[in-house]
Amino acid sequence: MASSRNCPADWIAALGAAISQCFPTGCRIAVGLSGGLDSVVLLHALHGAQEHAAFQLSAHHVCHGLSPNAESWVSFCVLTCESLGLPLSITRLALERQPQQSLEALARDARHAALRALPVDVVALAHHADDQAETVLLQLLRGAGVAGLAAMPLLAPGQPALWRPLLGHTRAELAAWATARKLAWIEDESNADRRLRRNALRHDISPRLAEHFPGYPQTLSRSARHCAEAGELLRELAVLDGLPDDPHKGLRLFALAALSPPRARNLLRQFLLSAGLLAPSEARLEAFRLALASPRSDARSALLHQGVVVLRQGDRVVVAPQVQAFRRTWRGENALALPHGDLVFDTTPGQGLRAEFAHQGCTVVPCPRGARLVLASGQPGRPVRELLRQHGVPVWARDAWPVLQGEAGLLAVPGLGVAPEARTRGEAPGYVLRWVPAPTTGPSYAGSKASR
């Protein structure tokens, strides 16, 4: 969107040109429409840009239900879209706040998830230069690095992509354009709540900054772009230093050990980001680096981060799910859904577990430490975890590997076999147990011999 100091036709045409350049012909673009000034301006601008580019335009309103005016905002969005002849979809949220959870963050994350779930190619968001400046300042105050200071990107890839075409424009410019066109919009009363940090910054600090540093939003937006470039360079450096193209492959330890501490921290940070995790704090990242580099660190040196574990597995650093305890009763179902995958019971004549066990209420639990499985009559039981290791199952996956137990003890382990006294005979029907692990961000073990 070009400067609003140009005539509307000029910058609307530029907006259409940007769409033609960035997105395929006929793409579906949905505006995140709150009903406020910013999103109303964006909706009208994109509506005008349809004369200059071929795309399908719609709007989506997320109703949080937090304000007593929420339904009137829904009605306003409906009328606005009807006046433009544009389709509108609505998501109604039922937010459940956990103890000590920020309601502001909860609403933001739920809104973002709703928009990301839309069946469109692009979601257009109405963040502008003032929003960007506030984000940069808030990130500075929390001690963020270049990734945080890069703030909000103009275009975030994904399905759908997130596009912010107003980042080069201030709130004042948008208000002037809307007033000139006699547009209507709603005011969210929560924007005046100074208990929220962003509002306190907007109402109490930003005006003072503007007095002494006119045009500071554009200046901070420029700094955000510089930080975004620096972030790209840090990722390129991490690739040169050994960042895997797929986080499931794990990060080679020798690549980490050969680097200076700053480069090693960058490589580890980029690896965690590539696995879909947020970067840990500076202190926590250094603790990760030292623990993983320690000669005494092994697979049991698991570092918890965002509900997963970061640990050594052989010559690699892997990210694995944190094992959840479970206990299920099997009564003949074809499959049991477990926290880390599905345990499937394939009916196979002459193989596997005798069918009678399907009626005895056997128990499925994670493989207990010290569990042994007899593979042949007359032979001693062998450690299940050692058998899984020999079959290529990583240690963190062994912790979640299910086993079937009966009143007399261990009956079967998927991928390994069935205790002799529990096996079917002749061509009688039996159950072959098959473990289908859920996708993880650690190295895949779905191809290991035990999971076949």
The CATH homologous superfamily of the largest domain is called HUPs
Computed over alpha carbons, the radius of gyration is 28 Å
- CATH architecture grouping of the largest domain: 3-Layer(aba) Sandwich
Shape: elongated
Summed up, the helix count is 14
Q: Your description of this structure?
A:
- The protein has 452 residues and is of the alpha+beta class.
- The protein folds into 3 domains: 8-224, HUPs (Rossmann fold), CATH 3.40.50.620; 245-321; 328-451, no CATH class.
- The protein is built from 14 helices and 21 strands.
- A 6-stranded mixed sheet has the order 3-2-1-4-6-5, sandwiched between helices. It has a 5-stranded antiparallel sheet with strand order 11-15-18-19-20.
- Helix 1 (8-22) packs across helix 2 (37-49), helix 2 packs across helix 7 (171-180) and helix 9 (216-240) crosses helix 11 (261-274).
- The longest helix has 25 residues, at 216-240.
- The chain is elongated, with a radius of gyration of 28 Å.
- The two termini are 54 Å apart.
- Residues 1-7 and 441-449 have low confidence and may be disordered.
Write the layout of secondary structure elements.
Elements: H1 8-22, E1 27-32, H2 37-49, E2 55-63, H3 70-84, E3 88-92, H4 103-116, E4 122-124, H5 129-141, H6 146-149, E5 155-156, E6 161-163, H7 171-180, H8 197-212, H9 216-240, E7 251-252, H10 253-257, H11 261-274, H12 282-293, E8 303-305, E9 308-313, E10 316-321, E11 328-330, E12 335-338, E13 341-349, E14 353-354, E15 362-366, E16 372-373, E17 382-383, H13 384-390, H14 395-400, E18 402-406, E19 409-413, E20 417-418, E21 429-437
Parallel strand pairs: 1-2, 1-4, 2-3, 4-6
Antiparallel strand pairs: 5-6, 7-10, 8-9, 9-10, 11-15, 12-13, 13-21, 14-21, 15-18, 16-17, 18-19, 19-20
Helix pairs in contact: 1-2, 2-7, 5-9, 9-11, 11-12
